[in-house]
């Protein structure tokens, strides 16, 4: 699926008409919104069930483990964005790599936007309930409970603070976007002008034909 999406994104503008791309984009935006909503409904439905099904360890132990996992997930993402870019700079000295560099302030939203969602819950639910010999799989209920808590914590802690983190990054205005918009407007104007000239030419030819007749 990922390979298909990459190929489509690269070859789509050359093979698919613009009106078809606009319709497809609108369709997939709505579909993605509905699927994301359905997945988070699944998270809400699964939360009470995960609490009721927790029997392998106590609720206090599972909550402490979930809190530790949540802190580890958040800290690991922040540490990654605070260290790995500098290692890449030491290894990759190409000019094009230097052009893609951003400062620590601009990396802050990337490090903070580590919310977990329904994909994590779906991965936890794929754990089989029984082993190969038919015995119940030990602590599967604890894994599901911890996953639900991690999702809730990352959404409740990281999500509300994300707008403030983005504002603190002080991103510069995207000049390329404005330039692309101006280019698109000029091309549209040229297309319209060419269309008017194409309609005017046959009418002139018809007038000449009428004069000769």
UniProtKB/TrEMBL annotation:
Coiled coil stretches, renumbered: none
Signal peptide: none
UniProt key word rRNA processing: no
Keywords: Cell membrane, Ion transport, Membrane, Transmembrane, Transmembrane helix, Transport
Bilayer-crossing regions: 26-45, 65-88, 109-130, 142-162
Gene Ontology CC: plasma membrane
Molecular function GO terms recorded: potassium:proton antiporter activity; sodium:proton antiporter activity
Subcellular localization: Cell membrane
Membrane topology field: Multi-pass membrane protein
Region (Disordered): 194-213
GO biological process: regulation of intracellular pH; sodium ion import across plasma membrane
PANTHER family (UniProt xref): SODIUM/HYDROGEN EXCHANGER, SODIUM_HYDROGEN EXCHANGER 7
Designated name of the protein: Uncharacterized protein
Taxonomy of the source species: Bacteria, Bacillati, Actinomycetota, Actinomycetes, Kitasatosporales
């Amino acid at each position: 699926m990922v390979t298909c999406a990459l190929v489509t994104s690269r070859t789509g503008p050359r093979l698919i008409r613009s009106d078809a791309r606009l319709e497809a984009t609108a369709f997939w935006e709505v579909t993605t919104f509905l699927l994301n909503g359905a997945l988070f409904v699944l998270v809400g439905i699964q939360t009470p069930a995960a609490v009721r099904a927790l029997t392998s360890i106590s609720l206090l132990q599972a909550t402490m483990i979930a809190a530790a996992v949540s802190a580890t997930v958040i800290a690991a993402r922040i540490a990654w964005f605070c260290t790995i870019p500098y290692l890449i700079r030491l290894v990759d000295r190409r000019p094009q790599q230097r052009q893609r560099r951003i400062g620590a302030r601009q990396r802050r939203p990337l490090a903070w936007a580590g919310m977990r969602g329904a994909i994590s819950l779906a991965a936890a639910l794929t754990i089989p309930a029984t082993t190969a010999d038919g015995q119940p799989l030990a602590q599967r209920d604890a894994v599901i409970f911890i996953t639900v808590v991690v999702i809730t914590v990352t959404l409740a802690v990281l999500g509300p603070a994300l707008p403030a983190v983005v504002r603190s990054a002080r991103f510069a205005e995207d000049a390329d976007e404005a330039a692309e918009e101006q280019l698109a407007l000029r091309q549209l104007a040229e297309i319209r002008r060419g269309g008017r000239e194409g309609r005017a030419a046959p009418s002139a030819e018809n007038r000449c034909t009428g004069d000769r007749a």
